[in-house]
Amino acid sequence: MVETMSWKNNVLRLLDQSKLPAEVVELSCNTYQDVADAIKTMKVRGAPAIGAAAAFGMVLGANNYTGENKDNFFSFMDHVAETLKSTRPTAVNLFWAIERMENCLLQYKKNPLNSLLKALEKEATEIFQEDKELNLSIGYHGNKIVPYKATILTHCNAGSLATAGYGTALGVIRAAHEAEKHISVYADETRPLLQGARLTAWELMSEGIPVTLITDSMAGYVMKLGKIDMVIVGADRIAANGDVANKIGTYSLAVLAKEHKIPFYVAAPYSTIDLTLMDGEQIVIEERSHDEIRRVGTIMMAPEKVPVFNPAFDVTPNSMITAIITDKGVIGPPFNVGLKNNGYKRR
Ligand code: MRU
Asked: Which of 152, 53, 155, 62 has its CA nearest to residue 105?
């Protein structure tokens, strides 16, 4: 299984996902600014991976502090947290992880600086390790709803690359494959940044899980041909009522799945469930650079000045979701009941 990130000797090493699959290169982050930049430019991406990277970003921030005064240290750490939080607005795991690190800072506030640094490092490592375990649990529960023979459509990349390991949507697929079920996958290419083509296809192929790549616009036809048994996607933020923000195009897939009576599943850990928000209307949708649409890589695909709208995510209403697969089990509607006490409440 590919390793998205590793932490050693106070350096965060990230597999640079913006270069995959053409180049498999590692990126070393020595400062919190390096981590913020890697998140912003999507060298590390996927909700749980962003959260874990930001947690290590907090450790690097604390290590980078050069002052003597402890009061200044805490205001410096506020600045580090704000810098990391300002990178991407939609995936709640980012805020969840930074809040956990802030709580750790509060808890050890009275300790000498070096023991505080150790506590922060331990907390970030726990966030990272815990995410791997959450994904294994998601896989375990999700496998129960996957038939012995199934073709599964997925969108974007909710795999090992998007998490600390194993993946959420791809974790379910991986668990079913490991259980020796006959699983094959259709992967949407996922315009504009092609996470499906570049990452999901690469990740599945490297593990021998059969995958067929399609463009996003082919999903309806592929469903109509009867090729898809179920859809499983990840999530960036799930509101208390079960509305799900995920990669742009997820909503279109849910509409198509409903029309073709294909079950539509979302797989995510509790750290993606934002119980502070009543519904998906309140989720902030990130808008990204217009050049991501005008170009593919460095090649211009549209008139240079054409107006563009580039939301990175959309919200799928809970009514279109068959069930949400979490680390605690498979939760069906009504989601406001099932998700209660099974998520996180922001401060
Ligand atoms: O813009 P990205 O690549 O960070 O978007 C990722 C997704 O939408 C994933 O489906 C989601 O974060 C879940 S990853 C387990």
From this structure: 62
The amino acid occupying position 291 is: D
Does the pTM exceed 0.90?
Answer: yes
Other beta carbons less than 10 A from residue 265's beta carbon: 22
Instruction: Report d(CA 285, CA 245) in Å as an integer.
Output: 8
Residue 67 has pLDDT above 90, yes or no: no
The CATH superfamily assigned to 145-341 is: Translation initiation factor eif-2b; domain 2 (3.40.50.10470)
Q: In angstroms, what is the span from residue 233 Cα to ligand 1's centroid?
A: 9
| pLDDT given for residue 246 in this prediction | 98
Assign domain 5-136 one CATH number from 1.20.120.420, 3.40.50.720, 3.30.870.10, 1.10.10.10.
Answer: 1.20.120.420
Start and end residues for every CATH 3.40.50.10470 domain found in the chain: 145-341
pLDDT band at 255 (very low <50, low <70, confident <90, very high): very high
Is residue 236 annotated as part of the catalytic site, yes or no?
yes
Say if ligand 1 is within 6 A of residue 163 CB: yes
- Ligand 1 pocket member 174 (CB < 6 A): no
What are the backbone dihedrals phi and psi of residue 237, each rounded to the nearest 5 degrees, phi first? -160, 135
Cβ-based neighbours of 19, under 8 Å, separated by 6 or more: 25
CA of 236 to the centre of ligand 1 (A): 6
User: How close are the terminal C-alpha atoms of the chain, in Å?
Assistant: 35
